[in-house]
Design brief:
By secondary structure, the chain is mostly beta strands. The protein contains one helix and eleven strands; from the N terminus they run αβββββββββββ.
Amino acid sequence: MKKFPVDKLLALLTVACFLLTSCSKNDSDSSYDLAGDWKVVYFLDNGNKITKTEDNTWLDLNNGDITASFSEPNDKGAGTVSGITVTNGYNGEYTLEDNCKITISPVSTTFINEPEWTELYKISAAERFEIRNSELLIYYNNGNTVIAFERN
C-alpha cells in the first residue's frame, strides 16, 4: 500500500483551510461591498448572541440603534466610516486589505453616557469582515466577537 506524503497532505489541508475560511464562500450568498448605511442587529460574544432589547438600550434615543456608514473605498482600499452609538456620534477611516482584512483607525467620538447595548461595539478593533446573506459581519477579539449589521 502506497503512503501519501506528509508534505502533500499538509499542503492539501492548508489549501482546504484557506478555502473554508476565505471571504469568498459562495458568490450567490457573499458580497464585499460594505459601502453604505448599516445598523447593528446583534453581537456574538464567545458564541453568545446579544440582541437589542428594551432592557439593554434606550429606545427613546436613535431608536436604541447603533449605525455605521461606510464610504466607497478608493483604489487603495481606504475610506471613511461614521455613525451613531445610540447617544454618541463617531467617525474615522478604514482600510481594506487582502483576505477580507479591515483596519479601522481610532475613531473620534463624543462622550455621552451609553446604554449597555453599546458595550461590545468596538469598531476600531475590527480585524476582518464579510458580507453574507445581506449581513455585514465585523470580527474582532481574534474572531471571538462579531458585530452583525443589516443595511439601514
